[in-house]
Design brief:
This protein has helices at residues 15-28, 50-62, 82-95, 111-116, 130-148, and strands at residues 3-9, 33-39, 70-79, 98-103, 119-122. It has a 5-stranded parallel β-sheet. The chain has one domain (3-148): 3-Layer(aba) Sandwich (Alpha/beta knot), CATH 3.40.1280. The mean pLDDT is 93. With 155 residues, the chain is an alpha/beta fold.
């Protein structure tokens, strides 16, 4: 079974995030093994530049990486529709046993970490809270796997 590890900076702060993730985790079980790993938050960031916060988050993320293919979610990543995402997942399933998908913190991902990733995707040109991105990504993964399985959810 294909294994997707979603690596996100910081714990889920609201119960609705946990509820949505639990909902999509249950739905995804028949298609893939999906695991959400939340790193610790970087402490004392009020008086340091955003780039420094991202640099401090990068090693926390790197310690969680383990798949042979890594995807970063970033506003400057490739944009695609659901059917294209399904095709991309199908290709990954043929070549790799799994993938890691990284969700950065409030300021995004450090440029050195982005450069180390195999691919960069954008969920939307809209700015979203890094908390909101978690259930949105889970829903899009479910939609893509549903497309691959010939299901009707995506319609």
């Amino acid at each position: 079974m294909f294994h997707v590890r979603i690596i996100a900076v910081g714990k889920n702060k609201d119960h609705w995030v946990d509820d949505a993730i639990a909902h999509y985790s249950t739905l995804l079980k028949k298609y893939a093994s999906v695991e959400l790993i939340c790193t610790a938050d970087v402490k004392k960031t009020k008086n340091i530049p955003e780039t420094e916060v991202m640099k401090r988050e990068a090693p926390l993320i790197r310690t969680c990486l383990g798949a042979t293919f890594t995807i970063a979610l970033t506003e400057k990543g490739r944009s695609m529709d659901s059917r294209t995402l399904a095709k991309e997942l199908n290709t990954l399933m043929q070549k790799h046993g799994g993938c890691d998908i990284i969700i950065g913190g409030a300021y995004g991902l450090d440029k050195t970490l982005l450069a180390e990733c195999d691919d960069r995707l954008s969920l939307s040109p809209l700015t979203m809270s890094h908390q909101l991105v978690r259930p949105v990504l889970m829903e899009q993964l479910y939609r893509a796997f549903s497309i691959l399985a010939g299901g009707k959810y995506h319609k």
